[in-house]
Design a protein that fits this description.
Layout lengths: L1 E9 L6 E6 L5 E6 L2 E7 L17 E6 L8 E7 L4 E6 L3 E8 L2 E9 L5 E6 L5 E6 L3 E6 L4 E6 L4 E6 L5 E6 L4 E5 L5 E4 L11 H5 L15 E6 L14 E5 L3 E5 L8 E4 L3 E7 L6 E11 L2 E14 L5 E6 L5 E6 L5 E6 L2 E8 L4 E4 L2 E7 L6 E7 L5 E6 L2 E7 L2 E7 L8 E6 L5 E7 L5 E4 L3 E5 L3 E6 L9 H5 L1 H4 L5 E6 L7 E3 L3 H5 L10 E6 L3 E6 L3 E6 L5 E7 L4 E6 L5 E6 L4 E8 L1 H7 L4 E10 L2 E6 L6 E6 L2 E6 L2 E2 L3 E2 L3 E6 L2 E5 L1 H6 L9 E5 L1 H12 L2 H10 L3 H13 L3 H10 L3 H11 L4 H11 L3 H10 L3 H11 L2 H9 L5 H17 L3 H11 L2 H10 L3 H10 L5 H12 L3 H10 L3 H10 L3 H10 ...
Antiparallel strand pairs: 1-28, 2-3, 3-4, 4-5, 6-7, 7-8, 8-9, 10-11, 11-12, 12-13, 14-15, 15-16, 16-17, 18-19, 19-20, 20-21, 22-23, 23-24, 24-25, 26-27, 27-28, 29-30, 30-31, 31-32, 33-34, 34-35, 35-36, 37-38, 38-39, 39-40, 40-41, 42-43, 43-44, 44-45, 46-47, 47-48, 48-49, 50-51, 51-52, 52-53, ...
Helix pairs in contact: 7-9, 8-9, 9-10, 10-11, 12-13, 13-14, 14-15, 15-16, 16-17, 17-18, 18-19, 18-20, 20-21, 21-22, 22-23, 23-24, 24-25, 25-26, 26-27, 27-28, 27-30, 30-31, 30-33, 31-33, 33-34, 34-35
């Protein structure tokens, strides 16, 4: 930050001042002294009356003396900002509340307590309550309406009071230095604050237990001079920073985060303190008082000097302000934090503050940060000053921002350990991070160049060569391309006293993160960097100069006779400028003796101080393209220097962000921070240098020859460009040609050569006017010489299609040109999304392609449909229309467009995509599409997804996908079988599935049979096997049908009391447990075994039922039934049925076995009786291939298994 005295107001009759208070909202200033109470007001930044660009104007707008204290000493004044009230008190105990009425202040309430003197008064942050303390220990807490809430008499002499930010606590400071904490509602004492900066304070408990109304002994001075607690009304820059300051007269201060902070920041100011105050956002603590200073010409003699010290919340010293006078009795901050008022003897001094905002300017973007009450992070705004676009990011614990080129870098403090405590985030102009990096040193100082980020702590330096892609390739970056495009990032981390500097690659993180700097008292105080050099200044005045490309190395050192706070250098690094801690600007020239450097192998640099010294300077900026130009901010004036000569100053308090091409760009950060969410382009100012202004004036009022002489004396590419422009306008081609060469404008040189060859002066004038975008003037010239064709050509080259249209309407040109113009104008409106106007012009140009696009964008599908009839058949645009209709799900219009375009397949695909399967099948059949089976197959899959199984089965059959239909039929059959209510339906479904498999096999054999190739037939069957997969029901297609056939046959035989056959058929069911389920199967077997008196089989069935998974209740029922049966009937077979012989091995075989247990010969069962067929005479179905005895099947007209007609 920077601060300087800006105004002094003398009090009439030399009346001494004791107090001053600045209203934070409306800007009124109350001054109290010997028989005096005044209210002043200065112009503020938000009044709108002051000159633009001046952050803190000094003109008085109010000066009223208030009569109410009857010549008493006004010792305390305080404002209620919320309710616009002023409270004052004098040495007689009289308290007056003032209120503004019709522009003047009047008494509202008066309270006189003559027992003691008011020592302090404070309002809460919301203005609802006031606390008044008296010297004798009396405390009064009242409301804003004048009512008394509570009062208390403390048994000690009081000095200071303060509210907590939330208004819950009150702090009372005694004259002896102790601070007591009370509840603000009840007035109960809670505790005493622990004071660690003063060791000899009395016991706080004994202090309150002494005799009441103890007056301060005469002549004894207050030890405690300030308790100030930032109320947080504007948010916190750092939520963990101290906000409570306790100051003592001996110069010691205690900075605390809360009233019970166990680890406060202790600060020794080295001065006698009179008062302390936080600024409006709690980032700066101002401490006023006096300090012993050596007397001029007598160093051994010291006298007190008035001074104000400024500190951060962590106790870091920022600035010192020396003030004339013997005693600073009071100080107060303006609400904006840009000014401070000081009551010194019989004067009121005002000092302007230039804050250190966290901001950067790069790529036409201003990045700045501020805090919000509702959020703990910093709000960073990336504002494009050209387009007005604004992007907001929230970043925790932001430290600083720097920008250059197309990027900015943000330094933050993280929550990590020591090696990852700080981080850098590189962002583009919209705030998007492009790179990030943890750094091992604290980024106290930060700088950025085209390819480097330089970080410096108080003792160490880190240089990071980043690899961000550049949007603009300058000549410098092109030349240094080899250095920038390395495989990995290069970093340098070194101590300020190191001579040999080596790079640290990104793979050596351990070495980098374990870096520790050496101890030194000559610490770093400022840095500056540009593309080739780095300057590092130390507190002793020693400056190190490093080269940064291609490698970092120390090239020189030189001494300055001051302590720098800001350092900068010209674009050629031959001059440096310095602003020291006292705000004094100085200019120096660097002279390097290279021969001596070679002999000693060390750089030797002499500093030549130029005859430039300015006071109260707070900002500076060198021109980027001229080493002799620089600008400084001195108080509220901007000076531009050429060499050592200053130009006329400009009144401004703006921060310089760019100096290039004889133009200074500055931003009014003070105004922006007043409303940071709404930056305005009015906050960006541009100032021309004197040479630029003079050149324009000479060209305007004198002659080109005089301007040529002036520009030769003050050469600059921009001035040569102005001369070339003026010369062209006067058709002085010789001077224009030379000027274009001087400013390296190749296109301008070629333009001069071209128009020189024109034989008509009017044509030359027109070309010059067109070259400088004066198209109306050029058109007028062409019209006067009857060459509208050239005017049309000129308008076309300039892209002024509206002008071309106007010329064509006057009768010049043909229909082709007119269509082209309407087409271009349609593009103009389309780019700006003015669709209605764009459609009008596209219709006139018959640009159907653009019409299709816009109709689609505006969702005018009726007009899009009409275009189908307009376009010719087989036009490619019809396909585009079809695609547009498909994208929005309008099938019928899309089909119409595709069919007219001759794209039948696209029409069918459209129907398939939009699930219009009926329409797809209809089109496929109508146009005899070969891929109809694939379409039907896709449609069937769609129906399966919709759970329309019957329709899907039908479509699979039509598409000859018998395997797929069989799978679905099997799936349905399983679901029907689980219900156990319709076994006949389940059998029919299994039969249908089996017939589908048989049909598929037959079709494959028939197709391959035509080729009469065994290999092809085998391939077809293998394809069938792969399609069925591992589905057993499809592999043995009749297995499910047989299960339900024999299941129903066994029950029918049992009901007909054909017990032997029923038992035999039930035993055959054991082969189909996977289909029927164990419970149903063994239940039937137990039942038939019981009625057939085969209790052995019945017993086995019960044993199986008892071991099945199920409820305990079912198991108990089975066990109980088994006990009832087998206690009565032993588990043995009573009737032994005769055995048959295996036709192959002649061994015994049962009628229910599916194959011989000895040789494995398969047996075929009769589908009528359920018995095995061991004879050669039998009947076989031609459809399902199942067999039956001749003597029993003759009664059936259809196959009992598949129900096919029996032949």
């Amino acid at each position: 930050m920077w601060i300087y005295l800006s105004k002094k107001i003398a009090i009439p009759k030399d009346q001494k001042l004791y107090c001053v208070s600045w209203n934070g909202e409306q800007g009124w200033i109350a001054c109290g002294g010997d028989g005096l109470l005044k209210v002043l007001k200065l112009e503020s930044i938000d009044d709108g009356k002051q000159q633009k660009g001046i952050a803190a104007p000094n003109n008085l707008t109010m000066n009223q003396t208030l009569e109410g204290h009857h010549k008493a000493k006004v010792q305390v004044v305080c404002w209620n900002d919320c309710y616009r009230k002023l409270t004052s008190s004098d040495d007689k105990g009289r308290i007056v509340v003032w209120q503004l009425y019709k522009g003047t202040w009047h008494e509202e309430m008066v309270n006189a307590r003559n027992k003691s003197v008011v020592k302090d008064m404070k309002w809460t942050a919301d203005g609802m309550k006031i606390c008044i303390i008296y010297e004798d220990g009396a405390v009064i807490v009242g409301s804003v309406d004048g009512s008394r809430l509570w009062g208390k008499d403390l048994k000690t002499a009081l000095s200071r009071c303060e509210w907590s930010p939330d208004g819950k606590f009150l702090l009372f400071g005694s004259m002896k230095g102790n601070i007591h904490i009370f509840d603000s509602k009840s007035g109960s004492r809670l505790m005493s604050m622990k004071i660690t900066c003063i060791s000899d304070l009395p016991n706080p408990s004994l202090e309150l237990s002494s005799q009441p109304n103890a007056q301060q002994p005469a002549g004894e001075q207050d030890i405690l001079v300030g308790i100030v607690w930032y109320n947080g009304i504007k948010g916190y820059a750092d939520p963990n920073s101290p906000s409570l300051a306790v100051c003592y007269i001996n110069g010691w201060c205690q900075l605390m985060r809360s009233e019970v902070d166990e680890n406060p920041v202790l600060l020794d100011t080295g001065m006698t303190i009179s008062q302390a105050q936080w600024n409006s956002n709690g980032t700066i603590l101002a401490i006023a008082g006096s300090q012993e200073q050596p007397v001029a010409n007598e160093p051994e003699v010291k006298s007190p000097s008035s001074i104000v010290q400024f500190y951060t919340p962590y106790g870091h010293h920022l600035k010192s302000l020396k003030v004339p006078g013997t005693n600073i009795s009071s100080l107060s901050w303006e609400g904006t934090g840009l000014r401070i008022a000081l009551a010194v003897d019989v004067f009121v001094y005002f000092a302007n503050v230039r804050p250190d905002y966290k901001w950067a300017y790069f790529n036409k973007t201003l990045a700045y940060c501020f805090t919000k009450v509702e959020r703990p992070e910093h709000c960073v705004v990336f504002w494009n000053t050209k387009t007005g676009e604004k992007n907001v990011k929230y970043i925790k614990r932001l430290i600083s921002i720097r920008g250059h080129g197309d990027f900015c870098v943000i330094a933050t403090k993280t929550d990590g350990a020591n090696d990852t405590k700080y981080a850098l985030i590189m962002c583009n102009s919209i705030g998007s991070p492009v790179e990030s990096k943890y750094i091992p040193i604290e980024p106290i100082y930060l700088a950025m160049t085209e390819c480097h980020v330089i970080i410096a702590s108080d003792k160490s330096i880190m240089i990071w060569q980043y690899k961000a892609q550049y949007s603009k390739q300058s000549d410098f970056s092109m030349a240094m391309n080899s250095a920038l495009r390395t495989k990995e990032e290069i970093e340098y981390i070194f101590d300020i006293d190191d001579v040999n500097i080596k790079p640290v690659s990104s793979t050596q993180d351990k070495l980098k993160l374990n870096f520790k700097s050496a101890d030194t008292t000559d610490t770093i105080c400022a840095i500056y960097a540009h593309n080739e050099s780095l300057f590092v200044a130390r507190v002793s005045g020693l400056v190190h100069q490093y080269s940064t490309l291609p490698n970092v190395q120390l090239i020189s050192k030189f001494i300055l006779k001051c302590r720098p706070q800001m350092i900068s250098a010209s674009c050629d690094s031959k001059k440096i400028s310095v602003i020291d801690i006292n705000g004094i600007f100085s200019l120096h020239k660097l002279n390097t003796s290279t021969q001596l450097a070679r002999k000693k192998k060390l750089p030797v640099t002499e500093v030549e101080s130029l005859n430039v010294e300015r006071k109260e300077v707070w900002d500076m900026r060198w021109s980027e393209d001229n080493p002799d130009l620089f600008a400084i901010m001195e108080k509220t004036k901007m000076y531009t220097f050429r060499g050592v000569t200053p130009e006329e100053p400009v009144m401004s308090s703006a921060y310089i962000c760019d100096f290039n091409n004889l133009m200074i760009k500055a931003v009014l950060l003070d105004e922006i921070m007043m409303a940071p969410d709404k930056p305005s382009r009015d906050h960006v100012l541009k100032y021309e240098t004197r040479s630029l202004r003079d050149t324009k004036e000479i060209l305007r009022s004198v002659s080109i020859d005089d301007a040529l002489v002036f520009i030769k004396d003050n050469p600059h590419p921009r001035l040569w460009k102005l001369l070339a422009t003026a010369s062209l306008e006067k058709l002085d081609f010789n001077i224009a040609y030379k000027a274009f060469i001087q400013c390296a404008d190749y296109q301008g040189v070629q333009f001069v050569k071209r128009i020189r060859e024109l034989d008509d002066r009017n044509k030359q004038l027109a070309e010059v006017a067109a070259h400088f975008k004066k198209t109306d003037e050029a058109e007028k010239i062409y019209t006067n010489i009857d060459r509208k064709d050239l005017a049309i050509e000129m308008r076309m080259q300039a892209g002024d299609w509206f002008g071309v249209l106007q010329l064509l309407r006057d009768g010049t040109g043909d229909d082709t040109q007119l269509a082209t113009v309407h087409d271009k104008i349609g593009e103009y409106y389309a780019d700006r999304q003015q669709w209605t106007k764009a459609l009008q012009h596209y219709k006139k140009s018959d640009n159907f392609e653009k019409l299709i696009q816009i109709y689609y964008l505006v969702e005018d599908f009726k007009s899009l449909e009409k275009l189908i009839d307009t376009l010719p058949e087989r036009s490619n645009l019809l396909v585009n229309i079809g695609d547009q209709f498909v994208s929005v799900g309008i099938c019928e219009h899309a089909v119409t467009a595709y069919l007219k375009a001759g794209e039948t397949k696209s029409a069918i695909d459209c129907c398939v995509e939009l699930n219009q399967w009926d329409r797809a099948v209809q089109l496929a059949e109508k146009y005899n599409v070969k891929e109809i089976e694939d379409i039907l197959y896709k449609y069937a899959n769609h129906l399966v997804d919709k759970n329309k199984i019957p329709e899907a089965i039908e479509l699979y059959q039509k598409a000859n996908r018998n395997t797929e239909s069989a799978k679905l039929l099997t799936k349905v059959a399983r679901e029907v079988g689980r219900v156990k209510l319709q076994p006949m339906k389940a059998k029919m479904l299994y039969v249908m599935a089996a017939l589908e498999i048989e049909t598929n096999k037959k079709r494959l054999l028939d197709q391959n049979g035509e080729s009469k190739s065994t290999a092809s037939a085998l391939q077809g069957l293998m394809q069938h096997d792969s399609s069925t997969g591992f589905d057993k029901n499809l592999d043995n297609s009749w297995h499910g049908a047989e299960a339900y056939h024999y299941y129903m046959l066994a029950q029918r035989q049992l009901s007909e009391e054909n017990l032997v056959d029923a038992l035999n058929t039930s035993l055959r069911l054991t082969e189909y447990e996977d289909v029927l389920g164990a419970r149903e199967l063994y239940s039937v077997l137990a039942l038939t075994g019981y009625f057939a008196h085969d209790f052995k089989t019945c017993s086995r069935a019960f044993m199986k039922l008892e071991t099945l998974q199920g409820s305990d209740e079912d198991k108990i029922k089975f066990q109980s039934l088994a006990v009832d049966i087998f206690t009565k009937y032993p588990p043995r077979r009573e009737d032994q049925s005769p055995k048959n012989e295996c036709p192959q091995c002649k061994c015994e075989a049962s009628d229910y076995e599916s194959h011989c247990s000895h040789c494995g010969t398969p047996f075929y069962g009769c589908v009528v009786t359920g018995r095995n067929i061991f004879v050669n005479e039998f009947w076989r179905c031609n459809s399902c291939k199942h067999r039956a005895f001749d003597h029993v099947v003759y009664k059936y007209k259809n196959c009992p298994m598949c129900h096919a007609e029996r032949s």
